[in-house]
Write a structure and sequence with these properties.
- By secondary structure, the chain is of the alpha+beta class.
- It has a domain of 39 residues.
- It is elongated and about 50 Å long.
- Strand 1 and strand 2 form a beta hairpin.
- The longest helix has 11 residues.
- The protein is 35% helix and 11% strand.
- It has a three-stranded antiparallel sheet, with no helix packed on it.
Length: 66
């Protein structure tokens, strides 16, 4: 039986913290930047934590075969 591989596209877009939480990059940063306020761009530039309802689905995609 072949190996179960993790989703490489997802693995490149997220980071897992030491406590196991999943950090993600915010959306809405790459387009129409001049229309956004400085405060909005500053907050979107920071990494955020993945919502708890999505954690199980994303973990399944990352930890295939572990």
């Amino acid at each position: 039986m072949p190996k179960m591989k993790s989703s490489r596209t997802l693995a490149k877009r997220i980071k897992v913290t030491g406590t196991g939480k999943i950090k993600i990059k915010h959306a809405y940063m790459g387009h129409f930047a001049p229309n956004k306020t400085h405060k909005q761009k500053k907050h979107l530039a920071k990494r955020g934590l993945l919502h708890k309802t999505d954690v199980a689905r994303v973990r399944d995609m990352i930890y295939k075969g572990l």
